[in-house]
């Protein structure tokens, strides 16, 4: 099935990457477990499958599916065993000593740590900037690579991807967008001008909280070849069973997001009504009052499943978790289970002590609203 958008997102999610119909065969073939493949003769580089560190039929199907969701048949997608591996596979092959890398101050921690640690040690100049369109554009002058996460996590600030892409292109650099919070159905960075989009597929893409996965997608074959070569040499490959599970999970991406996003807006609205009473702040790009709403409304097709709120103290945040029956205290987001955590416990985000990141699952919205309301009332 072509990835072109002549079908709706739900249809594309169900059919993405499936092989042509064949009598007596399953819709989605099972995983291929193999290290070597039959490889006769000397024309080994003309064969698609020779050794499983370079390719596997199960990856191929998943990568074809992700490419279709990311933009169509002219997109190349590559998979990795985690989102962090995907980030490394973009940064290391595309940067050299003396290059300038721009990264947000609140970007995904792995990106910041790689930038300020290993990449800086190799001679890459790192510019850390706020999650602000003007700040990113100003810092992009002379940069070889700009990496933005939008919406940011956990701040939920939004960068104008079109404006940043135009500036980066004008300066001769490349733009990478971490699209994990939005997903390809909530925001399409390649259509907005980005050179690369990356995802932690452990989150919404697979959606069940049981897989680690990373993906990158690009229309630039030079970038794709460099990233693929890095993966081959580093051995940062996805197992076939994980690839098959991920592909199976893609079919429900649209329906999961539809429910989760609607519930997230309902809960954000409920919580926003308590600001000034017993909550200090609520952030969700879908709220018309949110500072990020105007830009998000222009470039996003869905506002996501994650919101943040501040109950005023770390002590109250901890008590809220104890009082909630349905909200699970855990790190990560994008799962079918509603999860929350106090972000300051990690020590690397500029978050207030009480700030809670809430990732909305697929439970009934009314049940979640009652659960949160009871916990908030009990800890007022």
What is shown here, in short?
By secondary structure, the chain is an alpha/beta fold.
Question: What attributes characterize this protein structure?
Answer:
380 residues; alpha/beta; Aspartate Aminotransferase, domain 2; Aspartate Aminotransferase, domain 1; 2 domains; five-stranded mixed beta sheet; 13 helices; 14% strand
Distance between the termini: 53 Å
Q: Could you name the CATH topology of the largest domain? A: Aspartate Aminotransferase, domain 2
Per CATH, which architecture of the largest domain? 3-Layer(aba) Sandwich
The CATH H-level homologous superfamily of the largest domain: Type I PLP-dependent aspartate aminotransferase-like (Major domain)
> Which of globular, elongated, flat, extended, rod-shaped describes the shape?
globular
Record the strand order, biggest sheet: 1-7-6-5-4-2-3
The proportion of strand residues reads 5-15%
Please give the largest β-sheet: 7 strands, mixed
Oligomer: single chain
Q: What's the β-strand tally? A: 12
Low-confidence stretches: none
Q: Return Rg in Å.
A: 21 Å
Q: What is the helix tally?
A: 13
Q: How many structural domains are formed by the residues?
A: 2
Helix content: 25-40%
Return the CATH class of the largest domain: Alpha Beta
Mean pLDDT: 95
- Which secondary-structure class do the elements indicate? alpha/beta
Q: Could you state the order of secondary-structure elements as H and E?
A: HHEHEHEHEHEHEEHHHEHEHEEEH
Description:
By secondary structure, the protein is an alpha/beta fold. The protein folds into 2 domains: about 10-250, Aspartate Aminotransferase, domain 2; about 255-380, Aspartate Aminotransferase, domain 1, CATH 3.90.1150. The chain is built from 13 helices and 12 strands. It has helices at about 10-15, 55-70, 85-95, 110-120, 135-140, 160-170, 190, 220-235, 240-250, 255-270, 295-300, 315-325, 365-380, and strands at about 75-80, 100-105, 125-130, 145-150, 175-180, 195-200, 215-220, 280-285, 305-310, 330, 340, 355-360. The chain has a 7-stranded mixed sheet with strand order 1-7-6-5-4-2-3, with helices on both faces. Helix 5 (about 135-140) runs parallel beside helix 6 (about 160-170). The longest helix has 20 residues, at about 255-270. The radius of gyration is 21 Å and the shape is globular. The mean pLDDT is about 95.
């Amino acid at each position: 099935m072509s990835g072109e958008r002549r079908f709706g997102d739900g249809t594309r999610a169900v059919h993405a990457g499936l092989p042509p119909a064949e009598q007596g065969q399953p819709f989605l073939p099972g995983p291929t477990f193999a290290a070597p493949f039959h490889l006769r003769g000397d024309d080994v580089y003309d064969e698609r499958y020779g050794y499983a560190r370079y390719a596997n039929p199960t990856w191929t199907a998943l990568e074809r599916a992700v490419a279709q969701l990311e933009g169509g048949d002219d997109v190349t997608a590559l998979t990795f065993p985690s989102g962090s591996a995907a980030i490394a596979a973009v940064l290391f092959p595309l940067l050299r000593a003396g290059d300038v890398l721009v990264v947000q101050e609140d970007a995904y921690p792995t990106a910041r740590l790689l930038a300020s640690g290993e990449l800086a040690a190799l001679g890459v100049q790192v510019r850390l900037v706020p999650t602000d369109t003007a700040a990113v554009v100003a810092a992009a002058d002379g940069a070889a690579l700009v990496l933005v996460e939008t919406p940011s996590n956990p701040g939920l600030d939004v960068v104008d991807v079109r404006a940043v892409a135009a500036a980066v292109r004008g300066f001769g650099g490349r733009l990478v967008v971490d699209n994990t919070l939005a997903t390809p159905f909530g925001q399409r960075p390649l259509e907005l001008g980005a050179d690369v989009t990356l995802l932690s597929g452990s989150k919404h893409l697979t959606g069940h909280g049981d897989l680690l996965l990373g993906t990158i997608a690009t229309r630039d074959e030079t970038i794709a070849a460099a990233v693929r070569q890095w993966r081959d040499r580093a051995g940062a490959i996805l197992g076939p069973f994980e690839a098959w599970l991920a592909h199976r999970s893609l079919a429900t991406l649209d329906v999961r997001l539809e429910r989760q996003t609607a519930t997230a807006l309902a809960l954000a609205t409920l919580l926003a009504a308590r600001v000034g009473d017993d909550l200090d702040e609520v952030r969700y790009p879908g709220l018309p009052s949110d500072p990020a709403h105007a830009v998000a409304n222009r470039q996003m097709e869905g506002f996501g499943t994650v919101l943040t709120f501040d109950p005023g103290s770390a002590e109250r945040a901890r008590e809220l978790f104890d009082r909630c029956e349905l909200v699970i205290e855990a790190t990560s987001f994008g799962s079918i289970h509603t999860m929350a955590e106090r972000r300051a416990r990690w020590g690397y985000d500029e978050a207030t002590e009480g700030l809670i990141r809430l990732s909305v699952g697929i439970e009934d919205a009314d049940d979640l609203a009652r659960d949160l309301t009871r916990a908030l009332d009990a800890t007022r």
